[in-house]
């Protein structure tokens, strides 16, 4: 007998018996079995299980294209599985770069398209970033993941009904929005709200209010809603993601010591540069990166009972994509920039993006009396140590206020002269007086001299037109005198951008004045002479009297609550002290930042008694010397 027939008879015998016992036709039983299979709920699957089974990484957005493997970065598993845990409504991820934040978002999207269809909202800081995310990250994932490819039609295909910012799929849809666009945040109800880089969100979406609150409001009609908030942190006391993290479970990724077995987080303070190891906080052993990362880690929560809001913290020390040697090298570079140039920006970025921690601003006001008490007597116009001069000019209704500042290595500074020029600013001759003043020579005790290398003048007063005309005249004379315009707000660098958006096409630098104030207050609080230290003369004819010092220190940082979030602002102290000295030091600092001097070259020229700003007579033979090159403009 045919073997296949025997197997069929054996297999079908129980079916016939079941049909006879139930008194139902065998075909009817088979039909009901098919229906039951079709309507039965799928087996419970977590987000990480879905990703391991279905997700494919795209070549253009991943260095490791192909099948997703959560074990490649095991700290991601608990976060992914918290997303679809019925006990958890909110997941917060405060992390560094290079830990796979975006992949966590993409895996969540894939899960709620394929396995548990739902309306999804993804909020980026701006509409432009939302478009970039859709085109560069979401579209490749859909294209290369078979489980998604057939469910989300390409926006270019005929009758797809999909666009870059909105895509439909069976059982749901996904909308990409910008936190700066109230229209994109105010349409359909959604069940899954994914908010990326929330520390870069504006305080308000237009006039509608906090974009995080607007996105959350969209989820209120769903009992099984999910809110996922992800970001690299920024400034302490102002960071949105830190505030969210602190109201959650506060979970840290911890690994057991290979020697004593006790769990502990990756901490920068225990990293040893000499042998690239991390010291165990319990037994004190120095253990290599490879040995630490081979251990099976787990999250340890500070508040394990906060199950509705799980919050996680990660830093680059845990990342399989970043080696500790590279992290140490980047730290040393940031430290060098801070020590030698007084520039905090690189260190601030390193703290935020490598450790995943907030930067604590040191910009508290300095003490007036201590600054007044440490003034020095200068024996010459320019004290030894200064190698470049800059000027800041403020335009008032009846005068110019001017500060000349000397700068040395590490942005150590010397106040040279604080002065005023009175006159009718409608008249050209008053502006000529300013030009003549800025052409003055200043002398060292040795008899050698310097000219002002760069000047920044405020263009935002009542004489903008006159200022632009004068700046154009200075430009034709090839003088390094630039207009500046202040822009308030956190996170804007001191030298924000160069604009020529005016009728005369004059060069105007947009200054992040809050950053300038932070830099100045940090330097005023520096107590040891050297990088960042501020010297002031006690000589009566220099203009650095008590009124100047109080004006320099006339503002303080305060925290306001706007739309439910903390916002740091600089406000004038009580007492009505004028803040022109503060503005002028900002402008003078901007001038040296524009120059970005090469200190070593300038030190050698000053030591040789060369006034490098003076035009040198051309030599009869040989090539013409070009002067000292710096990192900004040529001196």
From TrEMBL:
Domain Terminase large subunit GpA endonuclease: 310-598
GO MF annotation terms: ATP binding; ATP hydrolysis activity; endonuclease activity
Protein name (Swiss-Prot/TrEMBL): Phage terminase large subunit family protein
Residue ranges occupied by any Phage terminase large subunit GpA ATPase domain in the UniProt entry: 62-295
Organism from which the protein derives: Agathobacter rectalis
Domain of life: Bacteria
Top-level taxonomy: Bacteria, Bacillati, Bacillota, Clostridia, Lachnospirales
